[in-house]
Amino acid sequence: MSIHSINPATGETIHSFPVLQNHAIESILKSAATAQFHWKALDFNQRSAYFNKLAQILRQSRDKYAHLITEEMGKLLKEARSEVEKCALACEYYAEHAAAFLADEPIVSDAGRSYVSYQPLGVVFCIMPWNFPFWQVLRAAAPAMMAGNTVVLKHASNVPRCSLALEAIFREADFPENTFRSVLITSAQVEQVIASEHIAAVTLTGSKTAGRKVAAVAGHHLKKCVLELGGSDPFVILADADITFTAKQAVIGRFQNMGQSCIAAKRFIIVETIADEFISSFKDLVSQLRYGDPKNDATDIAPMARTDLRADLHKQVKRSLSMGAKLIAGGTFMQTQGAYYVPTILDQVRPGMPAFDEEMFGPVAAFVRARDVEDAVALANQTQFGLGASIWTQNITQGETAANEIQAGCTFINGIVKSDPRLPFGGIKHSGFGRELSYHGIREFVNVKTTWIK
């Protein structure tokens, strides 16, 4: 069995890799566990030096890695460059702050002295997606490793070259051997890895279905896990929103990374009084987007990552139309090679339609009309997901009131939802549990240990 790297812009198979056999997997896991014993003995300054060097390498070779990302999963080259830069920032952030985040905390008790310390768990198994093939990995690995854990990566099967490149970057940065390893394995082999005595914890970014499976296996083996799953983020546009500004942000929020992001704006919930004007402005902006070679900086519309994902998205669009949604633009494949899909706008979307109830992981904007702010918040919450949300209004007090009522891991007012190393990231409901980033993220894979001294 092989794992294939396929260029989604051309359909060309770039390279194929053999799947690791079970005995080889176990050997790698054992090596990572042995390496962790030595890695955790380093002090924070020593670990920080490695991550600062890793950040330097990412910046120096930014264009090389950006081209790799674009060739393997199809995103715009300019977006891939930004992704690599963001990875470098995350490495530097944890290199600078990990020691403070994990410093011993004195606690007043009946002891002569008592305190809480944060100790690494061991080897963290990272199961990562293809849509941000460098960022998703490093935003999990940097805090986990700065805490003293080592990492084994199982990347998505369509980005094997990115997976191997990440391991090579750690080697180039002179990290101790086996502190970060990539394993090219199938989804069927994941359970074996989680069950291994050498794995202490698991983190997954992926679909709700994958999250359920991983959580069940991790729970069976009593291992800590963090799940960052899908989203159907509401983009709530209130009646007093600045239409020109908000429409421009809405296009970015929906179509960056070709809409293939868990925190992309997906359900545009708009107060009825401005709906027609806003949708017209949004449509005009979308019509100006240019598709083409994702390596060309003039291109706005890249291919989706795989043709099967495009087919699934198209089925969701057709089912929504059959249930009464109105097609404003798009709704079809582009007549060209590669996994391109025409940017699509749906109006009159309602609960019960796939465009409302399901995650639309691609370039489709679904407009939902609300009577007023209270109705908009109720519609925003009428979902199985709870990852991110944004609210657009010129009345900040009204925006904060609405934000407090929205059920999500984060809510942005007059800004596109994004992940930031300084802020905790994660969801509720079917969007998962646990947090990445900030000091919350680095404390996920540690033993919060109490010491009491008479």
From TrEMBL:
Coiled-coil residue windows: none
Keyword Secreted: no
Domain Aldehyde dehydrogenase positions: 3-450
SUPFAM superfamilies reported for this sequence: ALDH-like (SSF53720)
Top-rank lineage group of the source organism: Bacteria
Keywords for this protein: NADP, Oxidoreductase
InterPro entries xref list: Ald_DH/histidinol_DH (IPR016161), Ald_DH_C (IPR016163), Ald_DH_CS_CYS (IPR016160), Ald_DH_N (IPR016162), Aldehyde_DH_dom (IPR015590), ALDH_GabD1-like (IPR044148), GABD/Sad-like (IPR047110)
Keyword Ribonucleoprotein: no
A GO term, aspect molecular function: succinate-semialdehyde dehydrogenase (NAD+) activity
Family of the protein in this entry: Belongs to the aldehyde dehydrogenase family.
Protein's UniProt name: Succinate-semialdehyde dehydrogenase / glutarate-semialdehyde dehydrogenase
Top-level taxonomy: Bacteria, Pseudomonadati, Pseudomonadota, Betaproteobacteria, Nitrosomonadales
